Each structure stands twice: as C-alpha cells, then as structure tokens.
Amino acid sequence: MCLAAASFAAELKLGKPLELASPMTIEKVLAEPDALVGKQIQVKGKITEVCQMMGCWMALRGESGQVLRVKVNDGEIVFPKDSAGKTAIAEGKLTKRELTRDQAAAEAKHEAEEQGRKFDPASVKAGKTVYQIQGSGAVILN
To answer: Domains in the chain, please, with CATH?
Structure first.
C-alpha cells in the first residue's frame, strides 16, 4: 500500500490524459520530422529546461542528447519550474516553424530573458527551422 502511494506521488499528470500507447524516441522524431508534422506524437525524455516565467514550455533530451521542446498555450498547462532533471512523457502535435535570422534572434533574446541569461545578438548567424510539440498532455515521472 505504501509503495503504491509513493509511486502515485512521484507522478504528476498535466493537461489532457495521454492517448497514445507508447512514446517514440526523440531521435526517431528528429530523424525524419517532416513526415510527422501535424501528427499526434508522444515522446519521453529528461527535462533539461523549463520556462521560468510562465511554465509554458519544457525541453526534453533524448538518449543521444538531442532536444525537443514541448510548448503549450500560456495557462493551459504550467510545467513546474523546478522540473529540470526529471523524466517526462509528453504528447501533442509536432509543428514546424521556419524562422528568418531576425525572428531567430528575437526568439533567442526572449528565451534568454526568460531564463535570466545574457544574450548576444551577433551569436545568431542565420534563420532556422524549429520543430516542437504543441503539447496537449504530459506526465512528469520523478
């Protein structure tokens, strides 16, 4: 009985319940992301960062170190700001955004401000393609 309670307490469910049977690896998603854009996917990884302003995104790292961000609309889900280092399973639709250099710089500046880091605009040399999950639900495991 105590073990069941301890295991339940270690799991934090956020947003809608997960619907898919099992997660894909982040590496598999990022190997051919265009084939998955617009589709509902589920991934599992180690939380490396969480938005420190609104808790509106978290970054998950796969086994090989690749990172995929899970973004939610502000207020729909609030990822706990102290979740870095824990494991999470997240679900939602994979999205793709093409950013110009100026858009990439503005996004990097905003993220640096959120995380309390310094930002050098010269560090952004070109535009980029961003794949992320528009999150609908997540479970933080430990």
So the answer is: 12-140 (2.40.50.140)
* Pairing verdict, β 40-50 and 12-15: unpaired
- 23/5 Cα distance (integer angstroms): 25
- Round to whole Å and give the CA distance between 95 and 14: 20
- pLDDT of residue 5 exceeding 90, the answer is no
Between CA 70 and CA 15 the distance in angstroms is 12
Q: Which two tokens stand for residue 95?
A: 């999205």
Tell whether the model's pLDDT for residue 4 goes beyond 50.
no
Q: State the distance between the two ends of the chain, measured CA to CA, in whole angstroms.
A: 19
Predicted confidence (pLDDT) per residue in 36-85, tens digit: 999 999 999 999 999 988 899 999 999 999 999 999 998 899 999 999 99
Q: How far is CA 67 from the centre of its chain?
A: 8
- Give burial (CB, 10 Å; 0-12/13-18/19+) of 126: exposed
